[in-house]
Queue: 2 jobs
Job 1
Amino acid sequence: MESYEALLASITPSTGQTRTILDPATGQKVGDSPVHGTEDLERAITAASAAQPAWAALGHEARSAALLRAADAIDGSAEALARLLSREQGKPLNGPNARFEVGACSSWLRATATTPLDPEVVVDDGETHAEIHYRPIGIVGAIGPWNWPMMITMWQIAPALRMGNAVVVKPSEYTPLSVLALAAVVNRELPEGLLTVVCGGREVGARLTEHPAIGKIMFTGSTATGKAIIKSSAATVKRLTLELGGNDAGIVLPDADPQAIAEGLFWGAFINTGQTCAALKRLYVHEDIYDAVCDALATVAAATPMGVGLDEANVLGPLQNKQQFDIVARLVDAARDSGARILLGGDPDPGQPGYFYPTTLVADIDNDNPLVAEEQFGPALPIIRYGTVDEAVTMANGLNVGLGASVWSADPAEARKVAARIEAGTVWINSHGGVHPMIPFGGAKESGYGLEFGVEGLKSLGVPQVING
Ligand code: NAD
């Protein structure tokens, strides 16, 4: 097992400009990140162009074997990676957090490396024989956010590499060390130049999205940045997969058992302390069981420990950055001022060193309140009362985003009927937010387009080519 110190040392720059990265839980220094510019981006693209043809020529089997070795390398450095992720991002080691995220990186890489993608025969009628094949795109640009920095990077790079592409990664400026460390471990098994991380700010991301040598952008982040990328990539007609913001609704039907669903509702909303794209961000509960669901949720929430990530007891952490802390505080304060009832939380301790916002539940809140209508991306859940299922579906569909949603009921068949009426890329029944390497994932409306994972995900990292005849 690689040590944390050795891993951190391996990504610490010896020359050039650097930036100090602070732990959001304690304010202490985690490490130094390089500060890259557009000339570093050019170097990465030149190296990628040189490495990609030979990688593509290896074929699926040899590429898969290299990626499986890289998955083993991640497992060999798992604890060091998890500690670094916990310190930089803030998420605890335990619970569905840092160790879980690192574990997902190796399991996703294995699944992506071993999923078959055979040519598809579309017509074979004796006269015509047509097949679809998927050729490599060339160089893929991967731009990611700060909430699940390692896992989302892996979601982007694993299918890109598997399909024979080179990748240039631009991590969030908030969590560069996590992505550098993951790439350093993976790179032990890859040819030089094939996978490079360029740690710049927005200007580097923007240049990547307009660069003529880049064939595709895999982007996960806010809807506003997604729209900017659509514009900046237009001149070179880049392929895009856009996983953008969400504001997922959960609908609890009147027959649900509040005690039985409370734990699932809680983690659906508060996984990664609410900083998750497809987290439950507005909960609609039928009036008959409204109070019982609020009470059951408050009991689970009050018993779930939040604190510094390296403390093994904690399963909720701080917000990753001040900007996100301020968004959550503003939305909860506005909800309180509007007359909504704070069931739990809502009172951050101003003397604390980290960006801790307490687990917050807000009841008796109107559907047009900003805490409901805007993406809070933090540990504050609004709970809205409804009278009829039609009314709940109308409110769930009332926003211009549609990443995920969920329906909670004792009768899964009834829940599936309601699910079919919701405008979202995924609707879960009696759970929220679970992803699987073989189940496609993507958004509806302004939550983006393109699918990740499974066979659909592999196809989106290739250029379809029809061989007719
Ligand atoms: P963000 O859009 O601010 O930043 C994401 C990345 O884009 C960063 O690396 C940033 O440097 C880069 N960037 C910024 N401006 C750019 C530009 N003009 N051109 C190219 N790159 C640019 O998002 P964030 O605050 O880091 O992440 C939080 C958001 O991401 C939330 O809205 C969340 O819902 C969303 N998200 C979505 C998914 C999903 O799968 N749909 C997953 C995680 C997060």
Job 2
Amino acid sequence: MNSKVERALNEQIHAEFFSFYLYLSVAAYFTSHHLDGFSHWMRIQAQEESGHAMKLFDYLIERGGTVQLMALDEPQREWDSPSAAVEAVLKHEQFISQRINDIVDLANGENDHATTVMMHWYVNEQVEEEATADTLFHQVKMVEGSPHGLLMIDRELAGRPAAADASAQE
Ligand code: OFO
């Protein structure tokens, strides 16, 4: 497989596993602030991120590439407020979207059509991930200073169903 694309996909596996770590860290933050619905939602998102990494992992192997796992940085653990924690997630998703777009550009430039097509799944996924994080951020901002509003959102987030297995999705 094309070595530049192989490197970029390995870096993306690393970025998705860092997403997993970040969401887990945000989940732990919310647990320590007794917002268990937020924590539940972040834990499920962490599972989704692990699925995103594994989908790339499987694809690399299928194409005859070599998987190279890299060390993960320690994620941030504390935020000034619930909205700051959700904003960190939103900013991270915007960063991931940029990375995905860069991989699509690279695959196009290298005429790696299979990777371009596979990465379209991630392009679509990022539209959803950014929109969800953006809505949550604005809702949390709206109720800032109102424990009642925050608890209402918390109750809603507690209902998030388990993550679908991204690595099994076409
Ligand atoms: Fe993998 O989508 Fe979020 O980071």
